Amino acid sequence: MTPPPYAGRPSDLVGRQIAGYRVESEIGHGGMAVVYKAWDLRLDRRVALKLLAPELARNDTFRRRFTHESRVAAAIDHPHIVPVFEAGEADGVLYIAMMFVDGRDLRRQLDREGPLPIEDATRIAAQVASALDAAHDHGLVHRDVKPGNILIAPGIDSDHPEHVYLTDFGLTKRSLSLTGFTTVGQFVGTIDYMAPEQISGKPVDGRCDVYSLACVVHETLMGRSPFERDDDIAVLWAHQNEEPPPLTGQRPDLTPAVGGVLAKALAKSPDDRYDSCRAFVAALRAAALPTPRQPDVPEPPLWARPVFARDQHT
Ligand SMILES: Nc1ncnc2c1ncn2[C@@H]1O[C@H](COP(=O)(O)OP(=O)(O)OP(=O)(O)O)[C@@H](O)[C@H]1O
Ligand SMILES: [Mg+2]
């Protein structure tokens, strides 16, 4: 009898075949899934194969939601959304086969190189924003916008130095608490980007993604998310009750107007935020002053900066 795919360590799967895909190597893992580089044996092409932790498949509500949301996400054809090729279940494991993005995620980018100039931050945010607004037009709220779900690949020219993809629609671990999967009051995963209305369990719409995107932009500019604290309870409290920190420091590109735009996008009430991600990014762009560049030392494009190893994600 063939052992179930998750019988051993994730590396045990390398070389094995799952649902028509040959697993080649592990790309990384988050809290509830492992992502592999894999080969689609039917269509002869490389894919990223995401295998969800087996306990998720045992939760009926999560499965239904997974099936529904992966269908909706697969139906959105958008240049900044990672195309989903197939989602299903094999040997009791839920999987998603999607386009393999040869690049790095924004989490790794920030960890390795620190904050970005506002032009870079705005360009990345604009691409994520157009993906999110398209999803909202399809009635889909992402709910887990964070640097780890923003993938950055090489762009086509110096005007478009990187191409950004958003991934992981509907796969938020927080949704598990709504499905009764976790015990009451137990939060799983990062809460650094979570909108106040998500924390209090109110219904959410696209404006919760505006808030999370603003947290990401804040971190991209300042090197830390706006409500980073020592413990989770303090983070949750800060999202709901505290003002975001001002943009301070030696950065001439971070004008008070930029701080004002972020403060509006981070408003506690969705009604006080921008009503679309694009509107938020347009305001950001208008508020930003061009940063003086050294003419003799051109900045390498993001993707050309030091090469990263696709080692395990922690
Ligand atoms: N389509 C893809 N192409 C290339 N790499 C990918 C793709 N999708 C995900 N990855 C990478 O796989 C790794 C694991 O992703 P995963 O979504 O499991 O974790 P995460 O988003 O970091 O954390 P979380 O579990 O909190 O969502 C990340 O490093 C991510 O950059
Ligand atoms: Mg992810």
Automatic annotation (TrEMBL):
**Binding residues for ATP:** 50
**Record-listed E.C. numbers:** 2.7.11.1
Q: Where is the composition biased (Pro residues)?
A: 292-303
Q: Which GO terms describe its molecular function?
A: ATP binding; protein serine/threonine kinase activity
| UniProt-annotated stretches for the region Disordered | 291-314
Keyword terms, alphabetized: ATP-binding, Kinase, Nucleotide-binding, Serine/threonine-protein kinase, Transferase
Which intervals hold domain Protein kinase?
21-289
Q: What CDD domains does the annotation carry?
A: STKc_PknB_like (cd14014)
Where does the source fall among the domains of life?
A: Bacteria
Using the record, list the residue span of the signal peptide; answer none if the entry has no such feature.
none
The entry's protein name is: non-specific serine/threonine protein kinase
Q: Which organism is it from?
A: Streptomyces spongiae
